[in-house]
Structure formats: C-alpha cells, structure tokens
Amino acid sequence: MTVNGQPAALGQRITGGERILLDHRPVRLAQAESDARVLLYHKPAGEIVSMDDPRGRPTVFEHLPRLRDGRWISVGRLDFNTSGLLLFTTSGSLAHDLTHPSREIEREYAVRIRGALSDRQAEALLHGVQLEDGMARFQHIEPRGGQGSNRWYHVVLNEGRNREVRRLFEHLGITVSRLIRVRFGPLALPPRLPAGRYQELGPREIGMLLSEPEIAEPRTG
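and the corresponding structure tokens:
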C-alpha cells in the first residue's frame, strides 16, 4: 500500500486527501472513515461485548486503550463463550458498513464438536436450514482433524446474525464445545496475538477493509 507514492507506515494517519493505492488500485475514503482508528482484538472466552453488564462479567472494553474523544464501537459481536478476532473502530459509519448484511463480508470460524459431520449433515449446512430468524447456511465447511471424539471444522459464512454458527449446528442436534473466529473479511487473527490483547491496524489493513465491495465509495447527500 502507498500513500502519495510512498510506502504506507504502520500507524500513519491520513486525512482523506491523499492518493492511496492498494495493490496498485486506488482506495477512496469517506472523510469520517479516513479519520477512523481501528483495533483488532483477540477476545478470550468469558468476556461480554458490552460497556456494562448487570451480572458484573468482564467486558472486552476493559482491555482497550482510553480515548480522549469519542468511544470504541464494536464491529459486530461475539457471544460470551466465543473467542477470536473482534474489531473496534472510532467510526460509527464504518462499523455500520462492515456489519451491514448487503456487504456479505466473510467470517471464518474454527469450530469444535463432538463426533464427525456426516455427508448428509454437511450438505444440509451448506444448502441451508430454517432458523427462527430465517434461512441460514455456511458458504464453506472444511474438516480440520481432531483428537478422540472431538472434531474440528473451519466454517465460513457471510453474515453475522446472533449466535448463528452455534444455532446452525444445534439445528442438527450438534453441540459446539468451542468456537473461535479466525477471520473477518481480509483480516486473519494474528497467531502471535495473545488473548486479551489488541493491535491497532495500519493504513494497509484499513485500506483492505475499505476495499470491500461498496465500502470504498464515499457517500453523497
């Protein structure tokens, strides 16, 4: 990624007037989004994605850096028992864009279940099942081995409904014993980022997010 013909630097701030190229293609930013900060957080299981919790459970916001102005906004959510990649931004419009169903941004999860999926079960999950809030399906399912009676799979879907991965498996009578989000769009969970820690995205990573379909175009009106 280059900014005004020079290689982008980690943490470099941009104003929106620069000429930004990602893989030699221009990235155009809406003003509000060009000023946005974005964090990638490795959420551990046992934290809630909320500023306050009546039950007093730990929240993800306890581990984020303090802001002088504004606030951190989560890009979607992960449930209490799910770990993995979670994004935060200071831009409400960017958070809305990245989670809007029309964007169909892929989310990839590592899923541990008891036993192996049969061909019929895998076909049903790929073809689609009727949940209480509509049809849902995985775009891709890949076996990843396992030990004993536990089996791991990587699954991909392009929406972020509440507990969707767990509900898809539960529809077939399968209980998910562990769930980790390993990718959101073009961003993968860094293997050396410990649970409970974050890293701030630089211009290249933010540019990759903004280059998702329709996100790179500034709004008018």
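(Above: one complete record from the training split.) The CA atoms of residues 47 and 57 lie 7 Å apart.
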